[in-house]
Specification:
235 residues; alpha/beta; 7-stranded mixed sheet; 23% strand; Rossmann fold
């Protein structure tokens, strides 16, 4: 698989990244994300461990509601505030999730203001890597600001390796998974086109930025190559 190098930090904005087609999003996600059930299920499991019977959860970059559904599977009484830059994605998410589970929906960019909260948990799935590194750091600080003390932030993310060699290894592993899961040439080339806009950072950097933003403890919970679920608790 050809290696897609990092983009310039100023070459695009989050709002310019290619938009997934809501009609095909779910099936493609399962083919293109290895260990799909483990990764998504881990997010739900962490929210369930907040020990709040009916946690309020902000889902950043909610897409078609795949991550929200994983949260509700683990915590049926959770109350979700959906947040996405694409109105069509939000419509799909609201159609997927029960009306009583969705308390609000916001069409907005990750670089803009977040809903005020306070939230028991903030979750995100494969969205924040569209921001440059300063943008990620700024978002982490803003997430801390809308969480209650002790609140959870958990991110299912695509990350770089700690070296270019390992980043290339993870990219090769990703393609092998996608091909074995049924991705054809057209789908994989489309995925490469979207990933050309990604601004991934290493896991170590992101855990450090969470600590800087006031989260403690922080850790990676599960990982499969370039895909990781990491979390932090607001101090």
């Amino acid at each position: 698989m050809p290696y897609i190098g990092p983009m310039s930090e100023t070459s695009i904005s989050y709002s310019e990244t290619p938009i997934w087609d809501p009609a095909t999003y779910d099936a493609q996600r399962r083919r293109l994300v290895p260990s799909f059930d483990l990764l998504y299920g881990t997010v739900g499991d962490l929210v369930a461990r907040t020990d709040v019977p009916s946690p309020t959860v902000l889902d950043l970059g909610c897409g078609t509601g795949l991550l929200g559904a994983a949260v509700l599977s683990a915590v049926p009484a959770a109350r979700l505030h959906l947040f996405d830059g694409a109105a069509a994605m939000l419509e799909r998410a609201r159609a997927r999730l029960s009306a009583e589970s969705v308390t609000a929906a916001t069409v907005a960019d990750l670089t803009g203001a977040l809903p005020a909260g306070p939230f028991d948990a903030v979750v995100s799935g494969l969205a924040i890597h569209h921001l440059d590194d300063p943008g990620k750091q700024d978002l982490f600080a803003r997430i801390a600001g809308v969480l209650r003390p002790g609140g959870l932030f958990v991110n299912l993310e695509q990350v770089d390796g700690p070296s270019p060699t390992l980043t290339r290894l993870y990219a090769d592993m990703h393609e092998r998974h996608a091909r074995s899961s049924g991705s054809d040439d057209a789908e994989w080339q489309a995925a490469l086109g979207r990933m050309a806009f990604d601004r991934c950072a290493s896991l170590a950097d992101q855990l450090g930025w969470l600590t800087d933003a006031g989260f403690a403890p922080v850790d990676c919970i599960v990982r499969d190559g370039r895909f990781a679920v990491y979390a932090g608790w607001r101090a």
